[in-house]
Amino acid sequence: MRTCLMLLAIIGIGLQPAAAAAAPTWPTETVRVVVPYGAGSATDIVPRVVFEQLAPQLGQTVVVENRPGAGGTVGAGFVATAKPDGYTLLVNSSAHTIAPALYRKLSYDPARDFAAVIPLGISPNVLVVSPAKGFKTVGDLVAAAKAKPGGLTLASVGVGSATHLSGERFCFSAGVAAVHVPFKGGAEAMAEVMAGRVDFFFGPVGLVLPQVRAGKLTPLVVSGAERAAALPNVPTTSEAGFANAEYPIWFGLFAPAKTPSAVLDSLHDETLRALQVSRVRDKLSALGVDPLVMTRADFATYVKKQFVLNAALVKAIGLKPE
């Protein structure tokens, strides 16, 4: 009996290193999250709120890095070719699923080269103008656009961005045209609209709200299915008489396609836990971002459908691939 116990003890000691080696070790170093737009955009602000909570949960530093350019495709392309180990991730908006329809020669395949991890939330966009423009209602803006076809300008955070598509979809519904003026970030786009150098901008609620409250921007219409809680007096596109003009913006976390499932599961679960913290929920709500709770599989299905819907939208509004 004593000999057997000694053998079991020896075997047990021998197994301990192997068991420890088999245990999940991610993350053991800094996690880098690439945002493919400039600082100050909604796609930049939302993940910073979430990852501020996620970092201590993971026990590692989470660095958010801006890599703007070409409608988000520069930053996305960088992550697509990164090592699939869970240490280089992407946060993108609805623009992630519009890229294949807008760019003929992408260096990556948005559908094939990424694993959808988890949505961070969804928010309506708000059409805003400078008070100096004198537009009191969205009808005033449309009337001006019809009086001078192609005379108005539309700001966005890049070709194919959700801010761009919101504007184009609205113009298509209203039967007007506007000259698209892309910028690298939401802060720059808003500054140009406030200065009156660009006529209007469809920005996420949280991005434009401080300037609206300061009287520097006038909100005319919301692109969601319902009015924004933060702007209860601003009508939706449907209420204003424009059918099929809705284009809310969603934000999601992605990883290179071959990232191990165990890492993706852990990343999903920990991010979901961060999103459920009351402090995080309150901050996102203040930004006009609503929850969009999904499993990894559900989010992957959702993203696939978005590729199809956005390809149809590009065709309907006549946007030409670049």
Describe the structure.
The chain has helices at 2-22, 42-58, 73-80, 99-102, 138-147, 162-174, 186-194, 205-213, 261-275, 278-286, 296-317, and strands at 31-35, 62-66, 88-93, 114-123, 125-129, 152-156, 178-182, 200-204, 218-222, 249-256. The protein is built from 11 helices and 10 strands. Helix content is 43%, strand content 18%. Helix 2 packs across helix 9 (261-275). The longest helix is centred in the C-terminal third of the chain and has 22 residues, at 296-317. By secondary structure, it is an alpha/beta fold. The chain has a 5-stranded mixed β-sheet with strand order 2-1-3-10-4, sandwiched between helices. Strands 7-6-8-5-9 form a 5-stranded mixed β-sheet.
Give the secondary structure arrangement, pairings included.
Layout (H helix, E strand, L loop, with lengths): L1 H21 L8 E5 L6 H17 L3 E5 L6 H8 L7 E6 L5 H4 L11 E10 L1 E5 L8 H10 L4 E5 L5 H13 L3 E5 L3 H9 L5 E5 H9 L4 E5 L26 E8 L4 H15 L2 H9 L9 H22 L5
Parallel strand pairs: 1-2, 1-3, 6-7, 6-8
Antiparallel strand pairs: 3-10, 4-10, 5-8, 5-9
Helix pairs in contact: 2-9
What is the number of beta strands? 10
Portion of residues in helices?
40-55%
Tell me the series of helices and strands, N- to C-terminal.
HEHEHEHEEHEHEHEHEEHHH
Which sequence of strands runs across the widest sheet? 2-1-3-10-4
As residue ranges, the low-confidence spans are 1-23
Q: Roughly what is the average pLDDT, rounded to an integer?
A: 90
Helix segment tally:
11
Distance between the termini: 78 Å
Shape verdict: globular
**Structural class of the secondary elements?**
alpha/beta
The largest pleated sheet is described as:
5 strands, mixed
Q: Mind telling me the C-alpha Rg?
A: 23 Å
Relative strand content = 15-25%
